[in-house]
Amino acid sequence: MPFCSTAARSPTWQNWVVKPIRAVFITHAHMDHIMGVPTLVRHHHASPHPLDLYGPAGIAERVGHLLAGFEWNLAEPTWFTLRVHEVLPDRILHFSFPGPERFRRHFAGEEERQSREIWSCPYLTVAAEILDHKLPVLVFRVDERPHFSIDAAKLEQRGLVAGA
Ligand SMILES: [Zn+2]
Questions:
Q1: Where would I find the Metallo-beta-lactamase domain in this sequence (predicted)?
Q2: How far does the centroid of ligand 1 lie from the alpha carbon of residue 31, in Å?
Q3: What is the pTM assigned to this prediction?
């Protein structure tokens, strides 16, 4: 998911089949790009899987402020952990917001940035670059990996044609 605005709740999106979200990429913290984070947490909190959120410098503090605006006394030990990653020019800072701990922020280390790539899965890689939008913002490049292996001989045997 490349942004976290309220557009994700628009009627247009309500008919979509949404697969489990593994990572969210936020360009910057202007209101229209970050105000959907509490809604995202609300819809993901019962998941057993952590969720990774990538953003520019300072994003963890802002996410912390957003989540601190709610009461979490009903938090369950099974709630997910939001993992926030701040992408800096030379390194990535890691923070965690464990649901069972009412989404309080913890610094979870840092790593040197070896390349533009910041996230990958078997289907996609995501690279980030820092640009200026009167503040540092991230721009993302998403590349789809060739994850479908089509056996051309078997297709031909069955009289099928590969899709475009
Ligand atoms: Zn903006």
A1: 17-89
A2: 8
A3: 0.81
